[in-house]
Amino acid sequence: PPRSTLFPYTTLFRSNSYFINIYGCYKKDSYDHAFFPSRGARISADIKYVKGISKNVRNVRGFVSTSFRSNFIEPLSKKLSLSESIYGGTIFGDNIPPLYQFFLGGLNDSYMRGIFPFVGMNLMQQSDRNALVAHMDLQWELWKDNFITLKANAGRTTSNFKDLFIWDDDMVFGYGASFGYKSPIDPMELTIMTSNKHSDLSYFLNIGYWF
Question: 160 — phi, psi (to 5°)?
Answer without folding.
Answer: -115, 125
